[in-house]
Amino acid sequence: MNTGAAGSVQTILIVDRIDTFYGQSHVLQEVSLSIGERETVCLLGRNGVGKTTTLRSIMGLTPPRSGHIFFKRKDIVGKPPFQIAQLGIGYMPDDRRIFPDLTLFENLELAHRLSSKGKTHWTFEKIFHLFPVFVDLKNRKGTQLSGGEQKMLAIGRALMKNPELLLMDEPSEGLAPLIVQNLVEVIARIRSEGVTILLADQSLKFCRKTSDRGYILEKGSVQHEGVMDDIWQNEEIVKKYLVL
């Protein structure tokens, strides 16, 4: 992977010392990170360390109580999720959120919209080229799709919104090795189209294949950050915080 630092390109996202709560539970504690345009960056860590909450905070689903989140230099903290999506951020949740009674095609159609720049980059044709299996599945309802197929649909649906930044929550979780390898190729192709990606995943092996840099979370705070090859070779960090 290209391991150029975010400082060498224009920064598209800055998360600046956010604190996020669920009720009285202080989940994220002064989390900070940054992503350059066209980078793929991962959030690493075991279950329950704050990866999902970080993505939800960026998307406005669980707004931080303090700190700032700048997307293309605009502070988006406090904005509702639909406005954040309109600015150019797409979101693939870990539970996929497929509409079960709609067909695969209808799920995609519902998400289709013009991009924030007024262009329609991701078309039905392009999504079906990215996921050739969709051709045979387009008339199947969400309940008739496998877990892996639903995950691909969740990615395709997020892309139909033509995002500049794509948030992906646990994309490799629960997938067979062959499907994971296909997902690695899909992420590379999405990135080649100019989409910046922030993904949260437990698997260090998966993140090493897909990401430039990584942030390691533990107990709701960033414990380590670096380029993926350096993280991979740091046995102490891997043993302490990560899942291979």
As laid out across the biggest beta sheet, the strand order is 6-7-8-3-9-10
CATH topology: Rossmann fold
**Broad structural category:** alpha/beta
Give the strand tally.
10
Number of helices: 10
Strand content: 25-35%
Helix content: 25-40%
The structural domain count equals: 1
- From the spread of the alpha carbons, the general shape counts as globular
Biggest pleated-sheet summary: 6 strands, mixed
Q: What is the rounded Rg?
A: 17 Å
Q: Architecture, according to CATH?
A: 3-Layer(aba) Sandwich
Specify the CATH class. Alpha Beta
Q: What distance lies between the first and last C-alpha atoms, to the nearest angstrom? A: 18 Å
CATH superfamily: P-loop containing nucleotide triphosphate hydrolases
Order of helices and strands: EEEHEEHEHHHHEHEHEEHH
